[in-house]
Specification:
homodimer; 257 residues; mainly alpha; Arc Repressor Mutant, subunit A; Tetracycline Repressor, domain 2; 11 helices; 57% helix; DNA-binding
Chain lengths: 257, 257
DNA sequence: TCCGTTTCCAGTACGTTGTACGTAATTGGA
DNA sequence: TCCAATTACGTACAACGTACTGGAAACGGA
């Protein structure tokens, strides 16, 4: 199977040539990905076009294709690059609750720092090394508590779903606000606000209205709101652990270092 | 505030003119949205271009702009149109567990019927009437059990996060398989398979490897797998209900009919 | 009946996108 | 010194969203 037919980027590592003929590469995957991430952070992922990235590097668009097969692959590389910002110890060991809490909070700050991350990950499932690393840490947090592997993956998946959903709620209409060139606060006030008010006043959805009008958590900081939801999920997880389980001892020896 | 400045489509209802001068409209928002949904179902949302939709209707691309302000608005309309397929009774009343289970399963089949739905909803939060309707039903399922409104929205959010995540996992690489023109099963076997096998054999992520090799739920049907995860979430919700709550009586009178 | 006003239809055109292709430039090894 | 390999990048093409424009159609009032 030739490299050209390798669909996933993770089976097509960057060409590394220590010696031999041919011009020396002037750029790199990591450099290109870094520029793409910076543009996406500032102006949204749709602004990170091949031409724009190349211009930022002072070269032509087609030069990027030496390092990246297609733009879609670059998106996968971007996802994995920012997943590296999720700071975790080599292995879990603080007790399952604080371990999972750490993953959740780290993922949240990363997702807020790069508002395009979670929406993108949602529409393009990828299994880059950094994502696998974070996943492995979360799985490890629940290992050795007497759970089967399927329960572990299920519970971690549930936690992951909450974290992604919460980040999405927190990001909200950020992307669309940017698309229209308005600052997010003004956008919320002038456009989302009137619509929600209209829906509330119409009274068609009474519980939705109550959730807007009588909300107390709306007064909390986003971080506190996130922790409340996280506590709920962690309580749910805790309720499904085998009773009398050891606090955090792994059942298997740690992987070789 | 003129219509031109209304950013959200839900504040710009379709122009309805019962009489007066002017040519009679030959198409409609619903008709256009329907064609777009059909194309997206068959070939992915990126195939539902303005030109393509118009051609399917036997007209020019620019004619669509009489009914839809921008393509992005059409995406919101598509989301809401398929959300209408989530079949629910007028109001909950089967007990919170079966009510929520109903929403979950209905959402799942809808998400599978339109694989672009969940990824799209994830990258573009919208509050169309059909989505509000489904949300209201879910909120109603937990009303009258002694929970505050914030707890209700939190728990419903948690459930919703799981359902969306589960659908995403089930859809998997469907979209990318289609992009490459291969059928999904062949794609999984020839591309995803080798990569996962390589990761597993490298042994870098032992728990991930176990989750692949020792999984028993992988042998279940997707529907059973979904129900298992759903049961976990519902157990988590049940564990957080006030004790001795009435089974399903709403605390407030039903909305006017 | 005719006209003016309003609305819809649709062709043309512009700027932008991803990327296939071809050519020039650069390098190490024979 | 020449060859083979590799990178750099301008050109080109099809397809995209959509602004603009002129023409067609339908009604109310004259």
């Amino acid at each position: 199977m030739s490299d050209d037919e390798m669909i996933t980027i993770w089976m097509r590592p960057e060409r590394v040539r220590r010696s031999g003929p041919g011009r020396r590469p002037g750029y790199s995957r990591e450099q290109i990905t870094g520029v793409a991430v910076r543009i996406a952070d500032a102006e949204g992922v749709q602004a990170a076009t091949m031409r724009r990235i190349a211009a930022e590097l002072g070269t032509g668009a087609m030069s990027l294709y030496v390092y990246v097969p297609k733009r879609d692959d670059l998106l996968d590389l971007m996802i994995d690059m920012v997943m590296a910002e999720v700071e975790l110890p080599d292995r879990p060991g603080g007790g399952w609750r604080s371990d999972l809490s750490l993953v959740a909070h780290q993922t949240r700050v990363t997702g807020l720092r790069h508002p395009w991350l979670v929406p993108l990950i949602g529409s393009r499932p990828t299994l880059g090394p950094q994502l696998l690393r974070v996943n492995e840490f979360a799985l490890g947090a629940l290992d050795g508590l007497g759970l089967g592997i399927d329960d572990i993956t299920g519970l971690v998946g549930m936690l992951n779903d909450y974290v992604h959903g919460a980040i999405r709620r927190e990001i909200g209409w950020l992307e669309e606000a940017r698309r229209t060139g308005l600052d997010p606060e003004r956008w919320r006030r002038d456009y989302v606000g009137p619509y929600v008010r209209q829906v509330v006043e119409a009274g068609t959805y009474p519980l939705f209205s109550r959730s807007v009008l009588e909300s107390r958590t709306a007064l909390l900081t986003p971080e506190e709101r996130f922790r409340h939801g996280l506590d709920r999920v962690l309580r749910g997880i805790g309720a499904q652990l085998p009773t009398g389980a050891p606090p955090h001892t792994p059942a298997r020896p740690a992987p070789d270092t």
